[in-house]
Amino acid sequence: MRPSYSIMMIALLLSGSITLLGSIQEQRMDNQHKIIAVACSGSTFSQSVTTVVQTSLSLLVVYNDFGHTLGLGANLTATDGSPITGATITFYLQQVSRHPPTDSWLELGASATDDAGVATLGLALFGFYGPCRVKASHEQDINFSGAESIVDVVFPSGQAVHIRSDGSIDPSNAAIKRNGDLYTLTGDIVADSGGISIERDNIVLDGGGHMIKPLPHIIGNYGISLVDRTNVTVENIQTESFSFNIELSNSTNNTITKNKLTKSEYAATILEATGATFALGFFLDASSNNTISENEVNSIEIGGFFKSSSNKIYYNNFINHTPSRVSVDNSENTWDDGYPFGGNYWSDYNGTDLYRGPYQNLTGSDGIGDTPYVIDSYNLDNYPLMNPWSPHDIAVTNLTPTKTVIIQGDLCNLNVAIANLGGHDETFNVTAYANMTAIGVQTVTVSAGNSATIVFTWNTAGFALGNYTIEAVADTVLGETNTTNNILTYYKIAVTIPGDLNGDFQVDLADLVLLAVAYGSRPGDPNWNSNADLAMRGIIDLTDLVTLAMHYGQHYP
Question: Do the domains at 394-496 and 509-550 have one common CATH topology?
Answer without folding.
Answer: no
